[in-house]
Design goal:
One of its GO terms (biological process) is mRNA cis splicing, via spliceosome. The protein is an alpha+beta fold. The chain is 40% helix and 11% strand. It has helices at residues 3-10, 44-52, 57-85, 91-99, 123-128, 132-148, 152-171, 177-183, 186-193, 198-213, 220-257, 259-268, 320-331, 378-383; strands at residues 338-341, 344-345, 368-373, 393-402, 414-418, 437-443, 451-456, 460-461, 471-475, 478-485. α3 (57-85) crosses α4.
Amino acid sequence: MDPGRQAMINGSKSPRTDRGRDVTAPRYDPSNRIAKPSRQLPANGNVANAASRYLTQDQQSEQFVADEDKFVLKQAKKKADIRVREQRAKPIDYLAFGLRFIDLDRDAFDDDDGDVEIDLPAPEAVLQSLNDAQLKELEEDIRSYHTLEANATNKEYWTALLALCLDHRQKRKPQGPEGRAVTSVASDVDRILSPKTLEQLEALEKQIKAKLQSNEPIDTDYWEALLKSLLVYKAKARLKKVCAAIKEARVGILRKRDPERAKALEESGGFSATVPQLSPAPTKPMVRSAASTAVTQTSSSAAPLGTARFASAGNEDFSLATKALYDREVARGVSEGEEIFTAEEAVPGIQRPLWADKYRPRKPRYFNRVLMGYEWNKYNQTHYDHDNPPPKVVQGYRFNIFYPDLIDKTKAPTFKIIREHGRRKGESFAPAGKEDTCLIRFIAGPPYEDIAFRIVDREWDYSAKKERGFKSSFDKGILQLHFQFKKIYYRK
């Protein structure tokens, strides 16, 4: 029975059940959700743990860049794998393909059963087979992988290759007196350093540095040059260590499938001493009409991962921040239907900016693409087919211009269209069969100069479609302007 009812029958007072209760607190009512007891706060340690789950804006930006780098690197490795399998690999592709056998970050779904049976040239053999221009191109490719790589073993591999690539290039240059001093005893240096392990080389490096820092009367030029040689041998030792791991992984995979071939691979050292004939890069024909000013042919010196094909100006921005943004964009590569766009032109009516005395003017770096494709209008459908397609025409552009060092970061760079000879939007002065062109000028504040490009003058598509959508943004130092032209449909 309820205690209050029993007390009333007995003639006594109802027992107090609210003794010790805070009179200012809400009355407890189990059927009323409003009077539900408040949630107890976690202990101090738990509060700290809960707060740690929330990232600051800087941490979110760092996480975004890291995820983006990881995606770009994954795509670059996948493209290298495809080119090796299709026997159209470049030097950087062989170096990246060999690393996949010990790469813990690779996607297992990208593996192919025949990968382990592909003959891979030794990394040093790849370097020795290249001329000066090819070595310079390979160096830029290696730097791209080195910039994006986060795995410690993989980064060590690219660091060693970069050091060896620089050494090969340096040996082909005319040497000064200090270089000739080391060259004269190169055989002795090789005899002393080549058999040493990585640990022994590191110990010897400390001894040489201590000798250089001492007050002993020594030949400083000789010992500094010898130290440079030692760093090269350290790179060789690191590369040898990674290559041994690659060989062991390949042999382990083959041993389960073909023991005889695994034994032959183990005895051969794991790598081939000869480099397959490198397939020349396909030369893209120049597009006629207005697109001829917008598309460049493939040159002999390509950019990182085989994409940079435009020369840099003397006052171009080469800051570390710009290089990081540029390398990340270059690593994305060029998709099917895209080509590098470099139709840069002089900015009309340019004057010395007012801030030139305070800041050194510099030209922003960029990595732009032009979108090419076929237009299957009535005429082309009548005279061409998919086996014999019509000439490609410009269908849009993707501008990526880097402004990481803007003085006033609150003002985003802008752009404007310039039509020469008094022509207005919608008017055409071009003869039949040709297209009008115009200038697109990008404007930013100090320390960047304005920059202009010549593009086809057609109506833009401002739709929000995923593939053909319009994009104009400035984020993390990158101005992105992506657009395609409206498709014209002819009706009877």
